[in-house]
Write a structure and sequence with these properties.
By secondary structure, the protein is an all-beta fold. It has two domains: 133 residues, Jelly Rolls (Sandwich); 117 residues. Strands 11, 12, 13, 14, 15, 16, 17 and 18 form an eight-stranded antiparallel beta sheet that branches. A four-stranded antiparallel beta sheet has the order 1-8-4-5, with no helix packed on it. The protein is globular and about 65 Å long.
Length: 298
């Protein structure tokens, strides 16, 4: 399903908590999973795992997402690392080549660098999917991948028994003297419209507002994101952002409101954006943007 990936967390998390990956079982249920037997002893994974795959696609463009998970004895699935690949880039990112439907090809998927200890009694899981929303944009058509072989290469090192490196205490400037005007808060919600089937991920990152105690200038920001898709329709994908930035001091205030949206059809991406600038509550500047970009095997 195109909605696979919603348990993956943020690509670049600003905060801990809801922006980090959660239990992977919802995404595992939408993927093909391969589990190893429980480990007899703990292992340390340090580096970039790799997975070599042999597979075929029924479409000329396809993506593959591979996750390495730690499956706890109670069944909880914890993300260790993941990697994604546009299979038209299997041989070169500079010169992508369309897939021949039905033809088996080889590809190497490099997962993110990691340092992770898998305890004894836990199992390693490889989960494979052809979607990872909203981490990557979906293919222009629904895709079927047939996986015929796969090899996992783990960067293992001898089990660590303590800290292998030590560092001197960091040097730093005197901390910034501020007072909190609005506390920071992060929220993340997944909703399914039972009438239309659309699945929407809503993210609000309120970075709060603080006032500089030296000169009184207060600044704050809020970022809002919505990512919507129908599990059966890759062309229904939509990503929207709305970002507010504020500055104020002694009754004077300015703010900017920026909006952006990305959609696609089978041939192109369409990116639209708008910026509004305010002094107090008076709109002093506004501008709209829109650009269409060929997909070019994306």
């Amino acid at each position: 399903p195109q909605s696979c990936g919603l348990a993956g967390g943020e690509y670049f998390p600003f905060t801990f908590g809801p922006e980090l990956p959660g239990d992977q079982r919802p995404d595992d249920a939408l993927s093909v999973c391969f589990d190893q037997p429980p480990l007899g002893e703990a292992i340390d994974i340090v580096g970039a795992p790799e997975v070599e795959v042999r597979l075929s696609s029924d479409r000329p463009q396809a993506n593959v997402a591979i996750r390495l998970c730690d499956v706890h004895p109670d069944g909880a699935s914890e993300l260790i690392s993941y990697g994604v690949l546009n299979l038209t880039h299997r041989d070169s990112h500079e010169h992508p080549q369309a897939l021949v439907p039905g033809e088996t090809v080889s590809a190497r998927v490099i997962l993110d660098q990691c340092a992770y200890r898998v305890p004894a009694g836990h199992r390693l899981r490889i989960a494979v999917s052809n979607a990872y929303w909203p981490m990557i944009w979906p293919s222009p058509e629904p895709v079927r991948l047939d996986l015929s072989a796969a090899t996992l290469r783990l960067p293992l090192r001898p089990l660590a028994t303590g800290d292998k490196a030590s560092f001197q205490p960091p040097e730093g400037a005197t901390p910034w003297a501020t007072e909190t005007v609005r506390a920071a808060n992060s929220e993340r919600h997944v909703d399914r419209d039972e009438k239309t089937g659309i699945v929407t991920l809503s993210i609000t990152d309120d970075f709060g507002a603080v006032r500089d105690l030296a000169h009184g200038l207060a600044n704050g920001s809020i970022n809002r994101e919505t990512w919507s898709i129908h599990p059966d329709d890759p062309l229904s994908a939509s990503g929207k952002t709305h970002w507010t930035q504020t500055l104020s001091r002694n009754g004077w205030s300015v703010r900017t409101e920026t909006f952006a949206e990305m959609r696609s059809d089978a041939q192109s991406f369409t990116v639209s954006a708008r910026i509004e600038a305010y002094e107090g509550e008076n709109l002093v500047f506004e501008r709209d943007f829109e650009e269409t970009i060929p997909r070019d095997l994306l």
